[in-house]
Design brief:
Order of helices and strands: HEHEHHHEEEEHEHHEHEHEHHEEEEHH
Helix content: 25-40%
Radius of gyration: 23 Å
CATH architecture of the largest domain: 3-Layer(aba) Sandwich
CATH topology of the largest domain: Alkaline Phosphatase, subunit A
Oligomer: single chain
Number of helices: 14
Number of strands: 14
Structural class: alpha/beta
CATH superfamily of the largest domain: Alkaline Phosphatase, subunit A
Distance between the termini: 71 Å
Shape: globular
Strand order of the largest sheet: 6-5-4-3-7-1-8-9-2-10
Strand content: 15-25%
Length: 487
């Protein structure tokens, strides 16, 4: 036999083997689920029709909930934008990744969900509000700080929904989404999904929507008119002198919500039309809630239900079928990354601190998590010290919320008998035993997290963040390092 023939035969065999391996790899990748993560901003858990809010119109989310797992005890453990987003991306708690206040930078060396899935053969994309870059809210973000996302149409932070800027990939040219941004962003995501459906690789797509975060009164008029003449029911924990403001704000808040609901329906229909809905995980959730007048307060950071509890739906027909069910797992912000990786059968990196609840949600493991941590490491911005802001640590068990500030026990609520948290049980004799048990459980959690519960400014000094006289990162004029922001 001629040597040339032998060499050609070996080359042919190698190529056949290589092609076979590539086909196997492509098949394995295609079997991995796609992920469409719909992240909204400041949408409290109670504000959907499926959650029992009779004020609001959310037909698409109601339909999605009827075919999903509803995690009724999902919370944002440090209920403010940047800390939740950093925990979501890394599976770490704020004192580990250093992201315990807004407008600071998530380390570019962090192991993120996008980096892990990209390494595992996923195409990754991010559209919308980023808010973990820390170099000003309107400045260009280079690809070295995209944290593993390949497709990129994002801005650090804007709530000007009708004149909303963004950057594309590595271009420094600032662009503007046409019209109301969530509609334009949704169209872009639908186009992305259509292109990805033609590829063999699964995809991870985050659409990060800025609304229904205030300003409330900026949704398109077609959505506002649905609520302008509607008699809105206001929760009993809103003080009488705040009722008219709350009703007015709710008109705008719900208008944004219904607009987003329409967009969610459009993305879901795109998946169905492409016949990839079955093998796509759709997650709908928020970075935190909105007090909206509850206890006389607005926005977030505080440990009340309206602030910490977030909606959380997981739709994955290939694994769960299409029947609705609820789960009581205490899903916290750092638990999202490992739980999603668990559903994708992707190894969880050792840097992750959160719990993988995937097998528990599937009913394959017993849930041993009985409490989860809530915290304000450093009050700032909308809840700075001038407005009553203060450090706290607490536990949420589903039934109970227990919170300490630096002076001692602060809040204790039985959320089952008192869902609007109007009866503080701290230091009441008949609840002394419950308070002591919860205090011990909190102490145990803090020990596990190596959280010394120090004054917030000590952590700011530890991480070398520069803050202004209100102890807030002055993101308009300078970044978290004290360097001038130049656009």
């Amino acid at each position: 036999m001629k040597p040339g023939f032998i060499i050609k035969s070996l080359i042919f065999c190698f190529l056949c083997h290589y092609i076979s391996l590539e086909n196997v790899k492509a098949q394995e990748n295609k079997q991995k689920p796609n992920i469409l993560y719909i992240l909204v901003d400041q949408w409290r858990a109670q504000a959907t029709a499926y959650a029992g809010d009779n004020n609001v119109l959310t037909p698409n989310l109601d339909k999605l909930a009827s075919e999903s797992v509803n995690l009724k005890n999902a919370i944002s453990g440090t209920p403010v934008c940047t800390p939740h987003r950093a925990s979501l991306m890394t599976g770490q708690y704020p004192l580990t990744n250093g992201i315990f206040m807004n407008d600071v930078l998530l380390d570019t060396n962090a192991t993120t969900i996008a980096k892990v899935l990209k390494k595992g053969g996923y195409s990754t994309g991010f559209v919308g509000k980023w808010h973990i870059d820390g170099h000003g809210r309107n400045t260009y973000i280079p690809p070295t700080r995209h944290q593993g996302f390949q497709y990129w149409k994002a801005l650090e932070c804007s709530h000007n929904y009708n004149n909303s800027a963004y950057y594309v990939g590595d271009s420094k040219e600032k662009k503007i989404w046409p019209g109301y941004d969530v509609i334009a962003q949704t169209d872009d995501v639908c186009n992305y999904i259509k292109k990805q459906a033609e590829n063999s690789d699964p995809f991870l797509m985050f659409i990060s929507i800025g609304s229904p975060h205030d300003p409330y009164q900026t949704a398109p008029q077609k959505y506002r008119q649905l609520y302008e003449n509607k008699e809105l029911k206001v929760n009993p924990n809103v003080p009488a002198d705040k009722l008219e403001k709350v009703k007015n704000d709710l008109v705008g808040y719900y208008s944004h919500i219904t607009a987003i609901d329409d967009c969610i329906g459009k993305m879901w229909n795109t998946l169905k039309e492409l016949n990839i809905d079955e093998n796509t995980i759709i997650v709908f959730s928020s970075d935190h809630g909105d007090l909206l007048g509850a206890h006389g307060a607005w926005n977030k950071q505080q440990p009340y239900q309206e602030s910490i509890k977030v909606p959380f739906l997981i739709h994955y027909p290939a694994l769960f079928g299409k029947a609705s069910r609820t789960s009581n797992v205490l899903l916290n912000s750092p638990d999202i990354m490992p739980t999603l990786l668990g559903f994708c059968d992707v190894a969880i990196h050792q840097s992750v601190e959160g719990n993988d609840f995937s097998k528990i949600i599937l009913g394959k493991q017993k849930d041993k998590v009985k409490e989860t941590l809530i915290a304000c490491i450093q009050p700032f911005g909308q809840w700075d010290r001038r407005k009553g802001g203060k450090e706290y640590r607490g536990v949420f068990t589903g039934q109970y919320t227990y919170v300490r500030d630096l002076s001692g026990p602060w809040l204790l609520f039985d959320n089952f008998s008192d869902p609007f948290q109007m009866n503080n049980l701290v230091e009441k004799q008949e609840f002394d035993g419950i308070q002591k048990k919860l205090d011990k459980r909190l102490a145990r959690l803090l020990k596990v997290r190596n959280d010394k519960f120090k004054p917030g400014m000590e952590y700011i000094k530890e991480w070398n963040y520069v803050v202004d006289e209100t102890e807030t990162v002055p993101y308009i004029k300078m970044n978290y390092e004290g360097k001038p922001i130049l656009e």
